[in-house]
Amino acid sequence: MSPLHAFLLGVLEGLTEFLPVSSTGHLFLLGLWLGHEDEATKALDIVMQLGAVIAVVVYYRARLGSIVRGVVKRDPASLRLLLALLIGFFPAALAGLAFHKRIKATLMSAYPIAGALIVGGIVMIAIESYRSRRGEEGLNGLEHITPKRALIIGVSQCFSLWPGASRSMSTIVGGQLSGLSTATAAEFSFLLAIPTLGAATVFDLIKHGHEIMAAPGGTIALAISMGVSFLVALLVIAGFISYLKRFGLAPFGWYRIVLGLLVIVLVLRSASRA
Fold first, then answer.
1. Angle at 25 between CA 19 and CA 30, to 5 degrees
2. Total domain count for the chain?
3. Does 224 reside within a domain?
4. Domain range spanning residue 215?
5. Does 251 have pLDDT greater than 90?
6. b vs e for 8-44, b when ≥16 Cβ sit within 10 Å of the residue's Cβ?
């Protein structure tokens, strides 16, 4: 992999990891366009998520420090938030361990990804429209994330195992369905990314790290993609919540539908030429 390709992957990962548009789907489609179909590159797509995880840690360092200090001092609010993060993490972690190979074998292709993009877009638009008609804005503040709401979000995150569905979309929608505001659901989604993406990164690094390092230019590609994804993700996190407060999820929903339909058209056109 050339440094330019690693840079492009890093930019795309940083842009899409925390937006509800599916980083996995976008990276898969970019990989097809660039001709990257080897196992080392597929593993790189996951391992470089560590850059985005570090961006969350840096951006929320003050809050994370407060949580850690609160847990040490047995502060009830900090303990509740830590419990909520653990509850939100485990459903997708267990489902991922159980179905990872099957999902990779059956859903990691253009049509399932396009379908996930379209279905996710429709869901986002429908929920935004429903909440708007009823005048529901949801509860603001992480203190409103109870174990029950965390479980709803955690179960919703399982749908992100379908490539193209988006972890961000699944958790934010789960938060909305549990009664949270879109901004609060997004903030919890960011924090939940730390254990979720962190665990996925460590798992793939242990399993496929040697393939990345052994590939020509693998170490340099990993360093470039992680560094770029960190910087871009940091910028995205800073602006995403304020954007949601103004425009909501609907614009991302329409984008997903258009992209999904475009993928289907391009695949059909490519098949007709073969």
1. 105
2. 1
3. yes
4. 3-267
5. yes
6. bbbbbbbbbbbbbbbbbbbbbbbbbeeebeeebbbbb
